[in-house]
Amino acid sequence: LLGELPRDERDFVKMKASWEVVEHALVPSNSLAELEIFKPEETEVCKELLLRGSVVEEIVEKLRNAVEFLKADELAFAVEQGEKLGLASHPDEEICDAYTKGIEVLEKLTRVRRELKTAVEGAKRSVHQLRVAITQAEQLGYERTQEGAKLVDDAKDVQAIVGHLNDLAHAAWQTADHG
Question: Which among 128, 127, 77 is positioned nearest to 106, based on CA atoms?
Fold first, then answer.
């Protein structure tokens, strides 16, 4: 039933359910505090732990979402928050696993993005060098010779392929940055 609701409504239902759990946990601690069984500091620690638990759940959800949809910026932010909360050594194995997976995917995404940028820039330089060489060969009339015709034709073929690949890589890069 919950899966059929729009995402913002699902989030609200989950949040409301979470707060009901918090409220259920806090009501006894408040009444116990009134009975002076617990010291006020102990009650505050309990409240802080409950709040921290909800923050951890939120960060883990952000990690899982960013991993699933390969959102590098969101993943970097969630990993940073997870580091501050000490999720690497959290007693819940699922939380540790989500954090570790987030780090692994972030490292892979960072490496792939860097390699793609380098490849795209290299292709741009190669295409430029190819254009210059073709232009120089044509200005010299080299393409009219038997050897030159073959080399210039090959260079133009490579230029067309690299240019096309460059365009595809650029489009993919734009989609990755904005998608």
Answer: 77
What is the number of alpha carbons within 13 Å of residue 17 lying toward its C-beta? 7
**How many other β-carbons are positioned within 10 Å of the β-carbon of residue 163?**
16
The residue to which tokens 């939120």 are assigned: 58
Element (H, E) at 131: helix 93-140
Q: How far is Cα 117 from Cα 172, in angstroms, rounded to an integer?
A: 11
Local confidence band at 93 (pLDDT 50, 70, 90 cut-offs): very high
Q: From the centroid of its chain, how far is CA 136?
A: 45
Cβ atoms of 162 and 128 within 8 Å: the answer is: no
Distance CA 165, CA 82 (A): 38
Residue 120 pLDDT greater than 80, yes or no: no
Q: Please state at what angle helix 93-140 crosses helix 146-178, rounded to 10 degrees.
A: 150
Q: How far apart are CA 45 and CA 49, in angstroms?
A: 6
Q: Rounded to an integer, what distance in angstroms lies between the CA atom of residue 47 and that of residue 38? A: 13
Quickly state the pLDDT bin for 125 (edges 50, 70, 90): confident
Q: Is the pLDDT of residue 155 over 60?
A: yes
Which tokens belong to 143? 């393409």
Give the length of the chain.
Answer: 179
Task: Report which secondary-structure segment, H or E, holds 5.
Answer: none
pLDDT at residue 1 in the model: 46
